[in-house]
Amino acid sequence: MLVRTTGLADFERDVRSGKFQQFLAIATAFFALVAGGEAFFEHLRGSFCQWVMWTPVWLSPIVAATSVGAALDRNVARTVLPLTSAAAIVDGLLGFYHHLNTVQEMPGGIRGNFWYNFTAGPPLFAPLLFCAVSLMGLTASAARREGS
Known about the structure:
Layout lengths: L7 H10 L1 H27 L9 H18 L1 H32 L3 H4 L1 H7 L5 H17 L6
């Protein structure tokens, strides 16, 4: 009777060979473009009234490009991807702070008119989505291939 090893053994093999890192890097590239596109359209709706609204739009193609580079080259995964991912995480946290501040500045603030301001104001969790995508990029850079 043949016993097929699955689960942890296959995952361990994929991590060693670099398939897991490549998968995470490509997924990061895709979702960075999705999150950047969402930021573009939402900030377009807000007329890009502050320069900081452009930062996720500028950073998302950079994260996507370095993620694709990381899938192709282990040196990019080890050196460049952590830097761009960390920058995008900082940008996402800054965006969350700005979104929270904007909701607070709306009539009634957070406590007085929470449900209306939460739904009509800037999306509070969109910058955290950008952080999550970037965290996936950091995870891809940490999942090193054999020999790197």
